[in-house]
From TrEMBL, chains A, B:
Stated family: Belongs to the ATP-dependent AMP-binding enzyme family.
InterPro entries: AMP-bd_C, AMP-bd_C_sf, AMP-dep_synth/lig_dom, ANL_N_sf
Domain of life: Bacteria
Phylogenetic placement of the source organism: Bacteria, Bacillati, Actinomycetota, Actinomycetes, Pseudonocardiales
Annotated NCBIfam families: PRK06187.1
Alphabetized UniProt keyword annotations: Fatty acid metabolism, Ligase, Lipid metabolism
Domain (AMP-binding enzyme C-terminal): residue spans on this chain: 452-525
Protein name: Acyl-CoA synthetase (AMP-forming)/AMP-acid ligase II
One Pfam short name: AMP-binding
Cited Gene3D superfamilies: 3.30.300.30, N-terminal domain of ligase-like
Amino acid sequence: MDGLMMDQPLLLSGLLWRTERLFHDKKIITRVGQGQYHSYSYADYAKRVRRLASALVDFGVKPGDRVGTIAWNHYRHFETYFGVPGIGAVLHTINMRLFPEQQAYLINHAQDSVLMIDADQVSAVERLVEIGIPSVRAFVVMGEGPLPETSLEPVYSYDELVDSGTEDFQFPTFDENTASAMCYTSATTGDPKGVVYSHRAMVLQAMCLAMHDKLNMSESQVWLEVAPMFHCNGWNIPHTALLQGATLVLPGVHPTDGDYVEMVQDLGVTGMNGAVTIGTMMRDFVRASDRKWDLSSLKTMWLGGQAPSRAIMEWWERTFGTHVVQGYGMTECTPQICFNSTKSTLADQDPEAVYALRQTGGQPIPLMKIKVIGEDGTELPWDGTSVGDFWVQSPFTASEYYNDERTKESMVDGWFRTGDVGAINEHGYVIIKDRSKDLIKSGGEWISSIDLENALMAHPKVREATVVSVPHEKWLERPLACVVPSDDSITEDELRDYLLTSFAKWWIPDSFLFVSQVPKTSVGKYNKKEIRAIFADGGVSRVRERLA
Amino acid sequence: MDGLMMDQPLLLSGLLWRTERLFHDKKIITRVGQGQYHSYSYADYAKRVRRLASALVDFGVKPGDRVGTIAWNHYRHFETYFGVPGIGAVLHTINMRLFPEQQAYLINHAQDSVLMIDADQVSAVERLVEIGIPSVRAFVVMGEGPLPETSLEPVYSYDELVDSGTEDFQFPTFDENTASAMCYTSATTGDPKGVVYSHRAMVLQAMCLAMHDKLNMSESQVWLEVAPMFHCNGWNIPHTALLQGATLVLPGVHPTDGDYVEMVQDLGVTGMNGAVTIGTMMRDFVRASDRKWDLSSLKTMWLGGQAPSRAIMEWWERTFGTHVVQGYGMTECTPQICFNSTKSTLADQDPEAVYALRQTGGQPIPLMKIKVIGEDGTELPWDGTSVGDFWVQSPFTASEYYNDERTKESMVDGWFRTGDVGAINEHGYVIIKDRSKDLIKSGGEWISSIDLENALMAHPKVREATVVSVPHEKWLERPLACVVPSDDSITEDELRDYLLTSFAKWWIPDSFLFVSQVPKTSVGKYNKKEIRAIFADGGVSRVRERLA
């Protein structure tokens, strides 16, 4: 017996329908210069989104066509978030920080037909044309003022394109499983892999984020989206803000740490999300600044990519009353798998235990199923200590990679193998020990690089730390620590003694390299692959030299 | 181009999967006597739900079979909420307050194969068997102790049935459009009409309620479900509480106003939902009680069925800091259409304007579309004054009534005609003026019975008031007011003068009848149909006599 309910698909345009009627007076604010902001209402936003959609149809963009973007976080980029999927086309957000060859690979693999790029990306895209991106039949430049001089051909102004459309455009209705967006994620080996999102997945993910009381994305929030909008749809946060009618703040082109701090104070930002390094850099900026900053409007700082250290959590809480939260997500999951909040029944434990909980990836969000699989393929108990691979399943988890043979390595019996390793405790808190590719297997026993990193970063003289696996003759693998000190008086012995208070002797890294920077990936995570490659190239001394 | 996301259906068993893993230590508490409670964890709940599901399968209940319940709000009834739909069967909650003939009609129309009933309903159900309910092939009695003496045959003990099942039962996976539950709603004329919910509709509705920051159904809530669980799945609130891991409090059999008050104080209840009369009766109980009550734990009181008066809102806010909220829903919408919260941009108006907003039905919840249609069939603007019929569309709105010819009167072009009349303001707040069947059309102009009722109920000497349309020779229809005084010194002239300060002369009811009670429907709304019938039977004097 079927239910007798309307067959109404979950479409992104459905979210917009409500927002423009209920929250038309709420604002989207983009930083356009030092202390300068472009601000317009969701009503104006929705009109421009419909103009854009109508212009794209007139332009010949068909359902299923891929439209690429190479852009910063700003209102025009956000218009493409609803304008492109609204007509059944697919928004392909391209990572701005990749090398040209990698960007060209993505564009060719996705077969983008139109590229929408920021004005400051024009010369970089000219380079892509030289490499060869034959599927692209038009370039659209987003920015103020006249089109820059360029060899790109044909090239259009984004604002003129929008102006050519009609704001009366009606979004078509189609199946909710229609592709809405795509995003590539780096692979352990080989080229990046493409994930194709559906309208259903993105609407459901936004709803699951919206219902999280600790993220608290409600109408009254003023939310600063620092996470790049080219990465997993900006963690799906712009959609969630729009769904709830929150004020959305976008940092515009080339923002600095100081710009983030200034935006929070100027605009009374109440919540923000970004990579862990953003929280660290904002802290360092405030500490070093001559001005006295009041960031106490900021109640929620969601830091992602890796676990924020306890030191960072405590500094923000103590200094501005800001609650630092984290989650666990990946491109393949639209992106959240877990989100961390302290259950009311666990909040009355001693502070150490609460912090330990807060440093986990959190509990699976609604609709998300997770299990932990041991080396022998059996499901392990949720006891907080049994370590295995995390497998996940949900309506917003990828079922395959786009045109990619590697799908079969990641999908097993309807579950997605995350490639992450860890345990789950009895309350469903997911404790991530490592990416399986970053695991350190020393003398047959494994060592968690993440546990060591978290401990090192909690040391008062440490600013950043990463621990990687390097080859070893006797033990096969051993940990190597790269540490960015915040105090030059730090010594190797000091760190070794400090770690010995928490870890067994054989866990302690053989070398502690004091370096001035840890290489990061294009989305701000520690780039362990690069460190391992430098090590392979010349050992400890080469790493010390390259990261000096 | 399709998205490449997993085809994971939205099933009620999926919500349970998460709750029993993440919130297993949270509690479901049922009142079982004066100050006495049955309390068990979601872990124990989930085990019993799986035992129930397995036992029903063994019992021969097949996917699509209807399983009826006639029961109060308690943990056994709540077990059927997930146990029955979990195996693909359909939970048919039957209104306990209907006449036997009506209940028999529902059971026969739905073709219930099993009836699960409370022990205190046994003799009533024996009467149903006399009337004839041939589809029912087994009766299951929920309650403590041995089975009561009964002619029902075959009859089983619910607890024994549950004990016979296995807690290792695995819920099957099926299409999310599968029927999960059904509920009948009274019709203007003729028999009640059946609404068949799907798993998809109920999961989406629960998610939309969960993401509402003013309802604030979060993990830390202790939620008292007063709304009957036989009515629209208890407004879908039990599912939302389970989804979020909130503590759920159920008032058990034959609860009184004093029981509700006691439960709030005893258990530290933080939120509750029930008919408007519950809020009034609890207030009256507290006022009349010799004891001093502290209900300040109660932050949210959601009153439904009709609009709570400003007097009630103010009393709760002033006395206990309780925020009274309302929504707009109906059986056909699973059930919420709108929920009321004050937008941050409207909160700084003068208090009168904020109260006026709070007395509307609120804004459409996510995924819900609404429009207002004028007499000529055109869509009217959202200007707060253009009055027409509300039409709605959503994934949780009925597309048809179950086996019912009357579907065609209610469904137009993929929209459901609610039968309610009103306007929508520029921020999407839905201002309900009347049920179309309750509209008063006097001399070609219409009068809102709801506006008059709200005004009357704000008068300090009025406890309850309803206004109905009665036939009139010259004007065709005129308003008649039935008023339950809270102060016997009240006079007709006093009320007339009072209304004249807000309404045109021709809006003022011709008669004000002071009565001791207003008849209510089985779900606690004012029964205007009954008052009109009494009037038809003998005019004003007959109404005065019958409601004395």
